[in-house]
Amino acid sequence: MYLLFYISRGELSELGFVGLKDFGIEFINLCLFVFICVHLWTINNNWTVKKFTHNKRYRTLFLNFLLILKYLKLKKMTKALLLFSEGLDSILAGKILKEQGIHITAVKYITPFFGWELKKNPEKYYKNIEELGFDDGEIIDISTEYLELLKKPRYGYGSHANPCIDCKILMINKTFQLVKEGRADFIATGEVLGQRPMSQNRNALILIKKNAEFEDLLLRPLSAKLLFPTKPEREGLVDREKLLNINGRSRHEQLSLSERFGIKDIPSPAGGCLLTDPVIGDRVLAILKNDLPLNTITAELLTLGRHYIADNTWIMLGRNYEENKKLFEIAASQYKIYCLSEPSPLGIVLSGDNNIDKLFELLVKYSKKARLAIENGKEVSLQIVKNADDI
Ligand code: SF4
Q1: Residue nearest to atom 1 of ligand 1 (CA)
Q2: What is the pLDDT of residue 197?
Q3: Per residue in 41-55, pLDDT tens?
Q4: Best substitution site from 84, 110, 114, 150 to test ligand 1's pocket, by max atoms within 8 Å of Cβ?
Q5: Which of 155, 167, 277 to mutate to test the pocket of ligand 1 (most atoms within 8 A of CB)?
Q6: Using CA positions, which residue lies closest to atom 6 of ligand 1?
Q7: Residue 114 CB–ligand 1 contact under 6 Å
Q8: DSSP of 121-178, one letter per residue?
Q9: Which terminal Cβ of the chain has fewer Cβ within 10 Å, N or C?
């Protein structure tokens, strides 16, 4: 009640508060205030609102209390969620904000096509975050939604099977959900205007922003000065003057920034997305074109081995011991894994159940010993692999 009274008198805005939302953020301080009021009330339970608000001594006390609140509010750390690809640009974006004292949580989205190795070994990621001086890190698996998106990306594919614009919109929207949950004040990305022909030209950046649910909270520190000021800049959470105006494909400025920040291991610009790989990208497009089953298991298998794709048939073979082991590890819980009675690769029919003959033919093709045995009149048969030890 007292609070509303002072808001209506405009005294909060004089003190720099913009509204009740800020008090929500300083909830603990507000509780303290309520505690003081209740305390005062208990001192003299004959008090009325009027008496309180017209009592100079307590009015001064209250205003001083608000000044303390304001100080605490200014001290509150601004938080950003950084879309972190582990590439140089996102490292620099985080470093630039960190320099302003902003709390950085580096969010890494993973699918079988990028970042997947972190699923088994997340410690590597958290160690990297710590070494870079960021405050926190998070790994989020978005495979299911991503594979759906990959089937029909609204803004099409890039050079291979990479649906970069849709991919970024998905990641940004996912991150906005975290902002909505109060995890941060805004989102930052390492995007650079004009750096990539498909996803980082001006129109693409605007498009990504427009499709993002809260476009005003998306900050690109490396090119911010070439773009409209975002809410965190306008509200002074981020000092726009300290942001950059990098434009184009040259890495010159990024490299000199790396020196400034003492970054010694500069990640390659490729970024490690397997969808941009010509071989894997073409495989993915062939699977989609033939409407073959794409799920987390088959997607992971697409990133290794040999693949035979024709009409509704999809067969995969390992190329060496390591791949055979991986194939078994990934798929044994859902599919039958085969080999020959003679030493051979492991094989699996991912689509087209009646294609066991074709699988046999392919296994023989890639097994020297099986071919020799057949030439010598020995019978070679197909066997199911039940144990990883049998590989
Ligand atoms: S390169 Fe891959 S991970 Fe990066 S935006 Fe494009 S599709 Fe997404």
Answers
A1: 273
A2: 62
A3: 656 565 555 555 566
A4: 114
A5: 167
A6: 164
A7: yes
A8: -HHHHHHHHHHHT-SEEEEEE-HHHHHHHHHS-TT---SSS--HHHHHHHHHHHHHHH
A9: N
Q: Which option is the CATH number for 79-261: 3.40.120.10, 1.10.10.60, 3.10.100.10, 3.40.50.620?
A: 3.40.50.620
Count each helix (H run) and each strand (E run) in the chain, helices first: 19, 10
What pTM was computed for the model? 0.79
| 273 Cβ inside 6 Å of ligand 1 | yes
Q: Look at residue 20 and tell me whether its pLDDT is greater than 90.
A: no
> Which comes out higher in pLDDT, residue 17 or 225?
225
Atom of ligand 1 at shortest distance to CA of 114?
3
Span 291-301, mean pLDDT?
Answer: 96
pLDDT surpassing 90 at residue 194: no
Residue ranges in 76-121 assigned as alpha helix (H): 88-99, 117-120
Category of 19 on φ-ψ map: left (φ > 0), alpha (ψ -120 to 50) or beta: left
What mean pLDDT, rounded, does the chain reach? 86
What is the Å distance from ligand 1's center to 141 Cα? 14
